[in-house]
Amino acid sequence: MGVLEQSMRWNILKQDMEQAVQAFESSTTGDSIELFADAYPPPSKPRPDAWSVLRHHGRAVAFSKAGKWEDVLIEVDAAIETHEMIFNRNKPSSSRSVGILLNLKADALEQLGKGAEATSIRARANAANLRQITEYYRSVHEKLDRIYAKGKDKEK
Predict the structure, then answer these.
(1) Domain layout of the chain by residue ranges
(2) pTM above 0.85, yes or no
């Protein structure tokens, strides 16, 4: 694929992600699951690019809104695995983006009654402080994290 084709593909995928996140932010029903859950490949076959990491993260947040904590774990694990494959040569990452994902995983584990495992995961999340490679990638993870946090606040 040439440079021009790669640039066009990136712009299309970026616009697609921005539209999905924007629609997700304004969603108040189960519609949010469909934004990320039905339009893309299932988590058992992650697409090896940064966009698939963001899609897995989006699906995890959508499943959390529906209280589907086992599905949250599947998506978060797929996001982390794909992130580490792409950005860290299959080694554990301590980037802030992975920290966000690990905190979501810890919340899911707590919801499933696995407090000890959640504590261990949260410790790794709190230690994740490396800055992410691209500003845009980090910003989408942070937007999804804010959507998730807003949903948690409503539950209280």
Answers:
(1) 3-155
(2) no
